[in-house]
Amino acid sequence: MTAATHSTLFPQVPETADAVLDGLDPEQREVALALSGPVCVLAGAGTGKTRAITRRIAYGVRAGILQPASVLAVTFTNRAAGEMRGRLRQLGAGGVQARTFHSAALRQLQFFWPKAVGGDMPRLLERKIQLVADAAARCRIRLDRNELRDVTGEIEWAKVTQTVPADYPAAVAKSVRDAPRDPAEISQIYALYEQLKRDRSVIDFEDVLLLTVGILQDRHDIAEQIRRQYQHFVVDEYQDVSPLQQRLLDLWLGDRDNLCVVGDASQTIYSFTGATPDHLLNFRNRHPNATVVKLVRDYRSTPQVVHLANGLLSQARGRAAEHRLELISQRDPGPEPAYTEYADEPAEAEGTARRIRDLIAAGVPAGEIAVLYRINAQSEVYEQALADAGVPYQLRGAERFFERQEVREAGIALRGAARAGGNDSLLDDADDLPSQVRAVLSTKGWTSKPPSGSGAVRDRWESLAALVRLAEDFARAKSGATLSDLVAELDERAAAQHAPTVQGVTLASLHAAKGLEWDAVFLVGLTEGMMPITYAKTDEQVEEERRLLYVGVTRARLHLSLSWSLSRAPGGRASRRPTRFLKGLRPGSGSLGSLAAAGAGGIERGIAGGRRKPRGPVLCRVCGATLTEAGAMKLMRCEDCPSDMDEALYERLRDWRAEQARELAQPAYCVFTDKTLMAIAERVPTTDGELSSISGVGVRKLDRFGAEVLAICAGGDGGTGDDEH
């Protein structure tokens, strides 16, 4: 084993306390040496906060200032707690407790229950959803599976914000929170849920914190026993502390102030769960003598990525924005962030997959690449595009699209309706394929208008809406398509997807990406209505969306790509606008003073493989009128102007396209749209240049299909001998 391998995989324990401090920058060193009194570490993304606080604990232990058993370090996930314990062991401080709030409270509750209450502690519910279902049933309120998840989430939010059932409706109104049901109904379910728990002698995870708080408030002897054991506290991700967790922390501390908190208000993205940055922002008010250290040296990202991250926060408003940290990259310069505008969502997914394939070919490991989106329902088109490109992928924090319960249920319902055909009364008033799909999926929760707010009900609706959109696109691309044809298409799509692999590209929502990092990050779907999300109504909700994008940007070490599409489907109206959060940061979007002048990367148009398109008016080649509709611009004529299309050529092109789609296991429109085929049949190109001038024939499609299309135009059959197929 080489020394390098030893130091990387099995680092040697520092020989002395001073050696623990080796390699720390001045601010990190200041954190490590601040071992008494209140300490507030404001740590920006990528600034080495875990390194600083673990070195702080280890230095204190190794120097004899802290006793290992007297230190309690708490964070928010088991993964983060495990990482902290591992680092402390490597630094020679293995006796320190590093736990989540719930884990620490549960240990104390189990130990002190016999003394404080007597008898056996109630059984801990692993999942509360069945009990919530029982409570709803007794209230004669019917909840489907997704509503059940959302109501369960509301009960959890109420408990961590210390809201009792009777006060829930008022608390919801005060917080401007979108409740998934009538707040009075949720209050009723919540009250009965609590009653059922008492009847069945069970507790939930929130009760672990509530009961521990109750015991420490009522039994001063037990509180003093815990305070004698734990003399020093460290809290990571302090911006995510809920009011209930803060109450427990106060009781652990008592009248002492040996507390070190670490956080970044600009990374507060979980307020819907009860998290609030107020405790971090108010720390210096509560502890006037606190040592405050700001970590702003970013070791993760290049100056180009950091520049964009700083630019995002420079436009932020609100209290958290007043405490933003200006990051300073410590890395060598890298490529500028790429801004790419696509014509439609399939083109955006295809372009992203193509760029990822190029990065992998250039030596970037697939496991060091991520595609991040706002909601999980966006994953399907990227799953498909990566599978088509032969790129392995893995989903984080969500089921694969075709494995989601609502998608499976929808598939079963559509298959049943296809078998029944004209005998299904549900389809009596449905004249075409999209209306048939909408009729079937309306029985599964799809509605013409999305439900308000976020949560499981919204996630389910988004999945069903994706199926409705797919049916609309399929019907446009395949004239006369039946419900059976669509079911076959769905089956083929599901079968074509790759199984997740550890080495694959990560597909994840922005929330699921928190705490992670990759060499290359693709932020996709950055349009108004998705970023910020439609249901972000208040100023604070919009600001949290900005922070969510900031978290996404700061996940990238070297390569960062930001993209959006002007329409949903090929040939659709280009009515979308890129997110307001990039205004003044991407070229051509206005000025943001010195930030824009310093250079925020280049912008590309992804409509035709990255080439710029002429931006002047497009005129009808028949009557000379200015064209504005996407379909007319593709044909280069008004829709009602006479067509000189070669009908026989158009039919040969359609037959060829159908064969290509079958071989590629793609919907036909992914080869060429109907409008593109019509344009080809009207103009009958004879050269690559003439073919590439037709809207919808980009560089990639010209390379892939050009020879065959030109052969068909010349009267041939467009044989498929090319190995690329």
Keywords for this entry:
globular; 11% strand; 6-stranded parallel beta sheet
How would you describe this protein?
The protein is 46% helix and 11% strand. It is of the alpha/beta class and 725 residues long. It has a seven-stranded parallel beta sheet with strand order 13-14-12-15-16-11-17, covered by helices on one side. Strands 3-2-6-7-1-8 form a six-stranded parallel beta sheet. A two-stranded parallel ribbon has the order 4-5. The radius of gyration is 29 Å and the shape is globular.
Q: Label the structural class.
A: alpha/beta
Question: Helix tally?
Answer: 30
Mass-distribution shape: globular
Share in β-strands: 5-15%
Number of DSSP-assigned strands = 19
> Unreliable stretches, pLDDT < 50, 5 or more residues?
1-10, 496-502, 593-605, 607-616, 720-725
- Describe the main β-sheet briefly: 7 strands, parallel
Strand-helix topology:
Layout: H1 3-9, H2 17-20, H3 26-33, E1 39-43, H4 49-62, E2 71-75, H5 78-90, E3 97-100, H6 101-116, E4 123-124, H7 129-138, H8 145-160, H9 168-175, H10 183-200, E5 202-203, H11 205-218, H12 220-229, E6 232-235, H13 243-253, E7 259-263, H14 278-281, H15 283-286, E8 291-295, E9 297-298, H16 303-314, H17 319-322, E10 328-329, E11 338-344, H18 345-361, E12 369-373, H19 379-388, E13 393-396, H20 405-420, H21 433-441, H22 456-477, H23 483-496, E14 505-509, E15 518-523, H24 539-553, E16 556-567, H25 594-597, E17 602-605, E18 618-619, E19 626-627, H26 630-635, H27 647-664, H28 674-683, H29 688-692, H30 699-713
Helix pairs in contact: 3-4, 6-11, 7-10, 8-22, 11-12, 11-13, 16-24, 18-19, 20-23, 21-22, 27-28
